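Collaborator request, handled under Task 6.
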Amino acid sequence: MNISELSKLSGLNTPTIRYYEQIKLLPKAKRLANGYRKYSEDDLQQLHLIKQAQQVGFSLEEIKSLIPANISNWNHEKLIETLNDKVKEITKMQKMLASNKKNLLQLIESIQNKPNDMSCEDNAKRLMNIYYTESNEITEKS
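C-alpha cells returned to the collaborator:
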C-alpha cells in the first residue's frame, strides 16, 4: 500500500508517518521503481500499536525504546517492567484526579450551600479564608 492508503487506514496524516520513519519508530518503507513508498500490513499494525501506546500515555521516545523495528528483538523483561511502571503511574494519576474531583465537589457544595443571610461576596471571602487556612496547616505539617 502507498502512504496515502496507510494514512487513511491508520488515521495518521502522511507527515506524521514520514516523521515516524525519520525517527525510526517505523521501519523505512521499501521504494517502488517510481520512488513511491510501499508499506505492508506490518507497518499498519506498527502504527496502530504506536497510537495505542500514545493513548495510554507513552511518549514517542518511550515507545521507540519499547517497540523495536523487528518484533523478535523485543526485550520482554524490560517491556513488562515498563508496562508495570506505566500502570503504577496511571494509578497514581487516578488517585490524584479523584482527590481533585472530591475537592472541587466540596467547593461547589460550599458555594451553593452558603448561609441564607450571607452575600456571595462574603461567602467567597469566607471560603477563601477556610481554604487558605487549610492549605497553610497542610504546609506546616509537611
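The cover message to the collaborator said: "The chain has a mean pLDDT of 88. The longest helix spans residues 76-112. Please let us know whether this matches your experimental observations."
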